[in-house]
Amino acid sequence: MASRLLTRSTAARLLSHLCRRKPDPIHCLLTHGAASASLLGPTCDLPAADSALLRYPARWFSSSPAAATEAPMTADGLTVDSIASKGWTILPEAESDWRSHAAAVAQSIKLIKKRLKWGWILERTKQLAVVLERPDLWDDPVFAGRVSREHGELMGKIKSVNQFEQELIEHIEMLRLAREENDNELESESMSALSDMRRSAKEKELNALLSGDNDSCSCFIEVQAGAGGTESMDWAAMIMNMYRSWAQRRGYTVTVVEEMPGEIAGIKRATIKVDGEYAFGYAKAEVGVHRLVRISPFDSGKRRHTSFAAVAVIPILGDASSRYQIKDSDLRIERFRSGGPGGQHANTTESAIRIVHVPTGITATCQNERSQHMNKASAMAVLQSRLDQLEIARQAQMNAEHTQSLNEISWGNQIRSYVLHPYRMVKDLRTNYEVSDPDSVLEGDLDDFILNYLSSSLDEANIYK
Predict the structure, then answer these.
(1) Residue 161: its pLDDT value, please?
(2) N or C: which end of the chain has fewer CB within 10 A?
(3) Nearest Cα to 156, choosing from 211, 107, 235?
(4) What is the Cα–Cα distance from 69 to 27, expressed in whole angstroms?
């Protein structure tokens, strides 16, 4: 049976609220029958007599695997999936319509699961859980640590989404109970909570986009002035200030690494280091040429000028990140009898090992050691070195792709236009997303542009799979 329970904190809040308004909150709950009372689960915090009145086959929370996969459900059978499929109209956030808020949050949860590849995450977590149960796992501490970290990261994502689903169902139930009680204060609190969830859902949507290999890394952002002389140098300085403001808004640490000032104004080239979680994942959406149209402050004739600046974003890969992460499921291990001299048991047991990395086809073989265990360790070391070499080459190519926008900075290569005259608009030419307030964008309000680009990139990737 799907869970319909409020968490302990939410139920306690409900009881506290009712205590302020009713001399007997338990009686108040009982008047609404088993559906309301069952939301509270066991009543160990209540007096024994009252606890007996609320004895229902329910629990606060369950840690069993089966219960963890149950979809939260309201007393009248609403789940997140059913809310998303009802087609309720989604109104602006300012409207106090609980169906609108619930539908918006449910749609966001559905989108988040799609972006996270929810089915794959659940299956991968099961596979890793089996590996973690192996008694010999910690014979290889490096491999064990890698499996443990991956399992922890995936479980964190699952827990976060499940808690968000549960929170939505709880607020809907609180709203229902408030209306049954004609409790305007509690109804207002529940409506406000749904509205807050709707806003935080947008942030979670964005976070779900950041699942790339290096998205969690810090990064370097490099800006270079293009065609246009002093105009473009001034524009490059404006762009760099925009990214510094954006990074500081997000709580990242910004350090100027390099800055080459222009002869009159602005910069020819500059690089900043942005330290923080998912800095690269966000900033990679800004790679390309940025075009500015404005009345030049350097032209005495007050003519309109067009300027260009290029942006490159490079992830900062530490020593651990630069090593190829080998997954146990990607390996095919073949055992055979070794040939040639090798001791008493060399040709009588299958001690030789050949390890094939299936995704790349790279193999490593070892038959020099006397034991299968030693041969396997040596073959893994060789395979790791070969894959590390491949990873270094891949990263070099990736960095070249991130910096290729610096090669030609002119017409026909821009990703975004900033128009300050004769009208005011910022438009991303990759997604057609635009706003009419360029000042806020130049002050670092870039998240909507980043979200739209990352969303469209993911949708295109799904189409071509």
Answers:
(1) 93
(2) C
(3) 211
(4) 33
- Round to whole Å and give the CA distance between 200 and 106: 12
- Please tell me which residue, 420 or 117, carries the higher pLDDT value: 420
Q: Which of 103, 195, 211 is nearest to 157 (CA)?
A: 211
Q: Is 0.90 surpassed by the pTM of this model?
A: no
- What Rg do the C-alpha atoms of the chain give, in angstroms? 29
pLDDT of residue 349: 65
Residue pair 88/97 in contact by the 8 Å Cβ criterion: no
For residue 50, what pLDDT band results from cuts at 50, 70 and 90? very low
Identity at 220, one-letter amino acid code: F
Q: Mind listing the pLDDT tens digit for each residue in 59-100?
A: 333 333 344 457 788 888 888 998 988 889 888 888 888 889
Helices of type H across 369-437: 372-403
Cα distances (Å, whole numbers) of residue 22 to 14, 28, 183, 360: 12, 8, 11, 68
CB 150 within 8 A of CB 211: no
Q: How far apart are CA 298 and CA 296, in angstroms?
A: 5
With CA atoms as reference, report the closest residue to 418 among 407, 429, 406. Answer: 429
Average pLDDT on 229-239 reads 93
Decide: 313 and 280 in contact? Cβ < 8 Å. Answer: yes
The DSSP result for 121-171, as a single string, is HHHHHHHHHHHHT-TTGGGSHHHHHHHHHHHHHHHHHHHHHHHHHHHHHHH
If we measure between CA atoms, which residue out of 419, 417, 422, 420 comes closest to residue 433? 417
3-state secondary structure of 326: coil
Contacts of 445 (CB under 8 A, 6+ apart): 246, 249
Task: Look at strands 267-275 and 219-225 and give their pairing.
Answer: antiparallel
Beta strand ranges found along 316-413 (DSSP E): 331-336, 352-357, 362-366
The segment with the largest mean pLDDT, out of 41-45, 109-113, 142-146, is 109-113
Handedness of CA 205, 209, 215, 216 (dihedral sign): positive
- Mean pLDDT, range 266-292, rounded to an integer: 91
Q: Quick one: tokens of 310? A: 């290029």
Q: How far apart are CA 106 and CA 114, in angstroms?
A: 13
- CA-CA distance, 250 to 447, in Å (whole number)? 10
Instruction: Say which range, 109-123, 127-141, 170-184, 447-461, has the weakest mean pLDDT.
Output: 447-461
Q: Let me know how long the chain is.
A: 465
Dihedral sign (CA 438, 439, 442, 446): negative
Residue in the block written with tokens 């909150």: 25
Q: For 317-371, how does the pLDDT look when each residue is reduced to its tens digit (9 = 90+)?
A: 665 545 677 888 889 988 877 655 445 544 556 678 888 998 888 887 777 667 7
Which tokens in the block code for residue 393?
Answer: 């080459």
Q: How far apart are CA 45 and CA 140, in angstroms?
A: 47
